[in-house]
Amino acid sequence: MAGLRAVDDPARVHAVVVGVERYPRHSGWDLPGAVDDALRFHRWLRKGGVPEANVQLLLAPGEDSRVRLDALAGELTWRQTWTRDLLMDAFTEGLDGRTGDLLYVFWGSHGVLGQGDRRLLLCPDASPKDKRCVDTANLMEYLQRDDLGGFGQQVLLFDACAAFLEHHNQSTGPAVAGFPTVRRRRVEQFALCAAAPGQVAENDPALRSGVFSNAMLDWLETNAADLRPDLAALVAHVRAETPEVQTPVSIEVRALDGSREQLVWPGRAPLPPSTDRSRLALALHDALGDADLRARCVEHLAVQCPGADLGACPSDERIAHALLTVERAMAALVEVVHTRNRRAADQLLALGRTHGVPGLLSPLEHRSLRESFGRVPQLPPTARVIAAVRAAQPLGKAWLPPPTAQERDGPSVDQLMACVEHFEELTGGQSVAHPGRQLVPAVVRFTELLAALVPALRRELHEWADRVAHRLGVDDGGLAERRAEALAWPDSLGPAACLPRVLAQLDAAPVDPADDEDDRYTCVMWVDTGAGDLVQAAEQSIEPLSSRGVVRRIKRTVKLLRAETEETPVVEILLQPDAVQLPVDAWNGADDGDALPYLLGVEWATALRCAPLADAEQEEQRQEGLKNRRAGRHNDTVVFLDDGHAKGYTGYGALMADVRAARAVVRAGPDGRDRLVQAALRLGYPVVLWDRQAPSQVPDAHFDALSPERAVDGLPWRIRDYRAQACMNPAAHPVCPAALLESADRPLPPVLSLTGLADPAARSDSPEATR
């Protein structure tokens, strides 16, 4: 780990210091001592010569702390901070105009672990049903903003839990506020966190201090009066001071040499802390109260994990010690328990994640996976395995499987198992929708991606994943979504099979003055069974259809295709470039007297496609852009376009600035929205998302419910689900989403003279006239 560079002038050091002690909306979360820790850090800075004006001290004090703060009036400057917005303002506005060499951030509050192991800091206005918070990773990214003067070195210290959401006994998920998207620069950052994923950061009520903060501040006050701590020595001290009173400390480092690593200390010790054993022994006493179940568990452990050395009648303490130290012992135990007592199995799994038990898979699961790989005559090429590794990484951590001697030979079984064992360490978080249920862990995501790559192994790997997911208590819907994403994922690696689709090729028909309905469209239906080839549907219309007629035609075509493929297809609507604003998803196919509507965008996952541009050269360039950008659609780079981008060439520049970006989200109001949608369309963005009816520019978090940064292939389904919820509760679902999903490798039908179909003279020459 590289050290901090010298800072000659303390006036070049700035800091944001946060202490959240009181939670007014839920007094049960009050955290006595958080203000004291923040003040102690403030004193260390001031003794080192940092000017008072350089420190933003943001406190949410309890009554006792408020009395002490009032007594210090005139000696320090602090701000009473009761909302998330005020905390975020310290970073978005409070640093504007400041410049320096070194920035410190100290933050003491409650915290939780979000999806994808994201560390979330609970703000003072949080409550159990409204967990208002900020994301530490998002904060670190924002502090890399290129308009921030100096601060090339940044040290961030977070004393907060990383507990799973069920620790708060509420079903609602976190309400994360995102910092603005910024252009980033290279910044050297060091971050030290008080707890590993799933763990609680202890608070010492006698000291009125966090255990982590007390150990850290003891060292800083003694060894770093010059404000330039030896970071390696600081880490070593925290390691030495915390093991007996707190579960292992997780240290996440973006080292000052630009690399990134994660360290977890202490490692798996021969003798786990007695508090860990006692807590687990108590859970075992409850889980194994049935004598028959206990005997079965002991026998299974003896066979599968002989290294546990349990003996004939082991005590709960002895079993707990084996589960904490013997690889795969906990998984083997849960293998038996979950068939008889799901609640007890879930409790054991949660304790296992908290205490870092070795091995997510049981010996049987690990062995059967190796045997499956060994039975396949041809494993996927190394390049595709590496692509699967990258796709399965939850936070993009840089790790690749061991290299092969000759890449053309493909990976060996040992190398695939090395990938599996790496991913076992990433156990996954908890489901917000289903509290207490685990999200799909990385190892299962990886095997699902391998299943998509190796058809001969697909059924076997799917059955293996079903068994593992059931034992781990993984949410069934989560596994189904990951599986669908995995099956669609190989599209990004080259030509491959895709999901079935129904494509409706629409164009506005000439208006007949004698017709009561003015929304008439020529409609040619196409189907793709999943092989990638479009063929015209059996049923066609030579007369223009109303919007209701189009929905009914799609309904019949979907029904026929589903009967053939046994899968629900995606519905694609092919429109002329200047008609993508057409609200086709809201078209209703029901009769006026029907009790229920039949809304196109609610009945099926629906996406828009764009017909070729009239200018052949522009269309060629657009297709090239689609091909290049779609290959990278699995990264989460999103270009957000607001009202300011509609002026001059700003939007064009933003869309062209990052050649990897495959997603454009238009947040502009109606004056600039159409122009920006058309710009993204013409520049070959395969994913364009906007709100069709927003009366003005929408807030930054407007599209969060649709998760545009998540898997592209799942976006039509997420939008369909959102539209259904909007029917149920419109006030809570204000977005009217429209999504253009283009693909250079999923062909469009040939260009037809659609507008001529209503002309009787044209019908005799039309290939559709006899259908």
From TrEMBL:
Residues 519-741 form the vWA-MoxR associated protein C-terminal domain. Gene3D superfamilies: 3.40.50.1460. The lineage of its organism: Bacteria, Bacillati, Actinomycetota, Actinomycetes, Kitasatosporales. It comes from the Bacteria. It comes from Streptomyces griseoruber. It holds the Pfam family VMAP-C. This is vWA-MoxR associated protein C-terminal domain-containing protein. SUPFAM superfamilies: Caspase-like.
